[in-house]
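Lab notebook: predicted structure, single chain.

Context: the supervisor wants predicted structures on file for every construct in the current expression panel, including those that have not yet been purified. This is the next one on the list. No modifications to the sequence; it matches the entry in the shared construct table.
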Amino acid sequence: MEEAADTVPEGAAVRLSLPVSAVLMERMKLPSTDRDELGGMVVLQLEKTLPYSGSELTSGFEIIGQENNQSDLLAIAVSNQQLDSLCQPLRTRRMLPDQVTIFALQLAAKFPAEEVLALIFREVDSTILAIAQKGKLVAAHASHGADPESFLAELPRLLLSAELEGAPVSFTKVVVERDLADWRESLTDHFGKTPVELAPMDEPLDQGPVNLIPAGWTLEQQELAHKARMREWLMLAGAVYLALLLLAAGYIIWLQRQVAGIDAKVNAANPAINTITDQKARWTTLAPAIDPNRYTVELLQQIDKSIPSSDLHVTVFDQSPEQFMVEGEAPTASMAVQYMEALRGNPGLSDYQFDITPPAMVTPDHWRFRITGKL
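Prediction complete. Output recorded below exactly as produced.
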């Protein structure tokens, strides 16, 4: 989250999608169709089953169906303490999310035309089986299977759990995350006549139907907005005060004379300043040729020396007078970050400032990264 927070532009709207493992989901049938009444009933039911009070939880629900003054819904709850801990990097940057939802909910909403859909995708260290009915999430369960054989071994348990919760388990289609393309053949054999398709699941999704923003965050955002307005008023008051000062004609005339004298001195010094600037530019251009620490061979030696493991491979190296860039592959994202820290701590590269593009997963044990060192 710290790395993600660093990439968010100032003033941008932030939406947070939580994994299934971070929340509690529970199917409920409640005797009402009024949304406000249902909200209170959901909180009471959750307080009965969870070791939290209502003030320690943020909850929401999605209505799956309503009939005869009865609602079938999926209730979702998350611990406020857990959310506060997770979003601390955002809070310190004054950019708390304006929406907190569940990734599986958003994903299910992409397929409103499917009668009963199975969604299979990786999330954190788990493989998720999510069941959607006409674009609404009705069940979601996590498996520790990281390969098709292990997942299929756990699938009967996942389907039984979903069926006990009241979710349908006869699918009209199975959609698999595109990064799990090598699973398709095994899943096709297992599901038989049910079509199995691949789909990208890393694209931006629409706003989810449930917003799990804690009440305390709303008050905090209102306070931040109030402080921003106060700063604007103070700046306006300062501008008015400055305008009043400028009305003093004698003071203005004196300032103009001082400025004129300074301008004359600056104009007189301009030739010397230009000469120094030209010399500095020449030295900057020649620096890679005369500074041993910036020789290409020396850089390559330091880059190689910093590699933390033989499992990490540098595949691309590029150098310019002001910076160098390396790209490579690692078995984990943490190893790529560890490599950047090793470069940062290398005394031979102490003149450079480093940053890393967030590692991109090719497969769970294959990550690509890019690190840039700038003078």
